[in-house]
User: Fold these one by one.
Assistant:
Number 1:
Amino acid sequence: MTRICVSIIEDRPEAALEAARIAVAKGADMVEFRFDRMKMLPSDVGYFRRIPVPKIATLRTVGQGGSYSGSEPDRLAFFRSAIKGGFEYIDLEHDSPLLGKRESELKGAKIICSYHDLGGTPSVKAMVDILVRLAAKGDVPKAAFAIGSVSSLLDLIDAARLFSYTDREFSLIGMGELGELTRICASKLGIGFTYASLERGKEAAPGQVDVQTMKRLSAERIIIGIIGNPLTHTLSPAMHNAAFATLGLAGRYVALPTTESELETLLQVAVEMDLRGFNVTIPHKQSIIPLLDRLDHSAERIGAVNTVIVEDGQFIGHNTDAHGATMALRSAGVEGKGQRALVIGAGGASRAVVSALSDMGARTLICNRTKERAESLTKGFKNTRSIEIEDARKEDFDVIVNCTPLGMKGFPDELPIGPEVFRSGQVVVDTIYNPPKTRFLAEAERKGAIIINGEAMLVHQGLKAFELFTNKQASYEVMLNALRGVLY
Ligand code: NAP
């Protein structure tokens, strides 16, 4: 069982003591006091004895990414007083001269021998070698590496597995967004203890997760993720993690930025870390398909995958975007049968919307800047045909859906089609959700149309994916509020 150690980074001893009490109440198994973060070192560390879990004293030097700039003799004197004051562990950097005092002045506490590399990960062998060297210098080897790629993540997982065969207590941590899995799944890697923050915003290192979340995930847990490149603007972690929290489920949704060449490695990570599945976003919705074992009907039909479920080591591709589009259209009163629809754009979002409209029985016309793409999108969907944008302007539609990025934050604020196409009573949908009301929607509203933005489609595809991952139904409002919390 991996112990969870909360790093306390308060700048005053009294505040640190109070924070440690809270950490223990939240379930911390150990507490690390980062004394280098204090404005002044406490003259008496004896009162830290009151904390009823093992304590680590850390006085990280500036050279090793900490804030301590005093002398080495003063540092030794402080550690001696910490040992006398009941500290069970002293954290020393791998190159600290104080390691030589392990059997003399620093006797009485276990020495955690630390190594940090913010630059990245070396090879699996090099990481194991580092741990072996740290184990020779101290009682507990601890190494932390910044994880910059899915391959580095898999290397760190392999290194942890290999070192765990030594049966030595150790800690191996992946720092940064991609490293989160190594923290929340530390027990799968045989890691003795791992670090957590007291709460969000009080992280001592990049990628630390708060103690309550770590505790919640320490037993049975559902880990899911999202792959794409880049993933900087993804709203899915906020939506799914809010759903986990509200349902009281021990689950975590993590962002796994993955390049095209690392897709296969990502699948290995998913198996190694027991991921229940993951969402797939741009640019992998189609390129992931050859790597999967099978597709469900929706993914097959649309030719794209946005959700992968891992079942007995098999990868099954689903597409919940069309479900999201159907639910969004229905919520705006679209019935489909006997209605005429116009879809503008012929990319991934359009495929989902056209599939939804076709299943609902609408007659759908597709117009796109590149005519050939609109033409090819009509294949495989009933009651669809392509039309030139100029011709579409003169036609009458019951439903119009914008599936281009025109009007989205960061894109030209232009209408994808002339405003004369709008009329009263029409349903006009924009797949864009940021900004909440695009010029396209504003113009349609001015003409008396019923308008909806892309939020509903996004939330409904998320709800369906959540159900596939967990067999549980999340609340629409919870996911919607979570996404709005990030966006606006
Ligand atoms: P995509 O696959 O890249 O397709 C983009 C489409 O827009 C293509 O048909 C493209 O035309 C057209 N387009 C791009 N720039 C244009 C311009 N300047 N003028 C005219 N047409 C242009 O992208 P996607 O994944 O379908 O995403 C499209 C939009 O849907 C984005 O705004 C995205 O945020 C939104 N979306 C929303 C959801 C949701 O759940 N609400 C889900 C997915 C996507 P060409 O074929 O000529 O290049």
Number 2:
Amino acid sequence: MLPLKEKDKAIIQKLLSAGCCARCVLRFCCVTIQAAYRQAQHETLEELKAFITEKESNIVQDSTSQTSTYEHNKSQDAALSETVEDPPRKRAKLVPTQTVQSEPGSAAVVTLRNVESHVCVACLGILQDLCGPDQAVKIAETVKAQNYEFDTMVLSVSLPAQLCVREHSCWLHVKKEVREKGLVLDKDDVIQVKEAFKWVMQGLVTKELGSVAVVSKSPFEVGVEFTHPETESDCHFLAKSCPDCFKPTKNKQSVFTRMAVVKALEKISDARFLQHYPSPPLEPSSSCTPRDIQCLHMSVFIAGRYNKFCRSLPQTPWVIDGERRMESSVEELIAAPILSAFRADGFNFSSSGREDVDVRTLGNGRPFAMELLNPHRSRFSKVETKQLQETINESSDKVRVRDLQIVTREAMNRMKVGEEEKTKTYTALVWTQKAIEKEDITFINDIKDLTLDQKTPLRVLHRRTLAIRQRVIHSMNARYKDSHHFYLGLKTQAGTYIKEFVHGDFGRTKPNLCQLLKTDADILELDVESVDVDWPPPIPE
Ligand code: ZN
């Protein structure tokens, strides 16, 4: 039962003659009833044929040649009787342009039969054989094989850009007739191929996957892509008409992106379009090619704090000239168990500042967050997250993680906001050339809010721009160890280079401890005692 009106007949007739498939005809009739697209295309075609050849005045109940479909149409028309004002139209049959036959009825049959086996000029086969149970089984099998954990999915469709050109050409072909439907219909009212494809496929895929809902918004996306090399050159004339729509971009292989083509089609006049492109479009010899089905789950973000207990562990893999210098890293020790639990393809690790390879991070630890790319599993209960934290902690004695939790992408930003204003506390083991006096200890303990000018340290100059940065040491305290060693506690603004403050970095940090104590001094050990960032929120043990 197709919701068609008398005024649709002219559109249907024109499009079928032009080589459009049944579903594309429905699209251009602006049929929004999804069920109409779901019925088998040959049935729709039969109905359309019956509809346009029927003469309203001679609907005969007892005719043996009438199909049940026909009856549907009849009742449909009866229901629409108020809107059907036109008298039975003599031209309500196909008027094939090239094959004018002596008997109009037979001409219609001939042309329509051809339509069935032809590749649609508008959708290039996408709404024909590429849109049905077989394709749904293929999609479902691909999804199942990848073993994702999900209960909703979104089906996304990527179409060749030239489809827009063909759509435009078809639209110009029936523009007059569509407008004559009486409503103020525009090109935007034509149902898009993508939309029709989803209306047909979503239900079928749902059926194949069992309890999964195919919806319009979900973190899990299954992408179907179609290409049609044969008609790729359809777009090319647009580049001459609208050169500024087609500027080469870095990541795109071709300038003829869907966006660019749509933009150019909005600009080009009908007359100019018709000068360069046939309306209706020429018939292709083959259908679109479906590409590999792509599954992608939105990133999941996980955050926590880490301690580092080892003086020979870099934060990130340490590779120089393609060669690894240390066998592991904080990042890898934390990431490995998380990646395998979430079955993710990869990760991005970030933290609130970083420590040097020989620096320990003690206290409550350093906040970190990880983006897990394409996780195949995404839901973890609090208990499961806790177990995951245990797994990380049992896997190595070099790092320890606490407050592990799943967070949102937005929440992650809180780790970076105001990072420079935050304070950090450190303990450094300092060596001095001259023997340490009691006065030195008092002198250090009395220093408050000391502003440093730090020229980018020599050791990081290869990765940071040369600048003088002002940093504040809020307070210090010294604890005597022996005559040439003391422990220096520091509370500083984040981003202060502690090692450079102690040894002076050849005068690049001013003032420095050597200047202050009037002796040569060096730093032997450094520990981060606390990173005062109140994110992520603590999780009670
Ligand atoms: Zn079509």
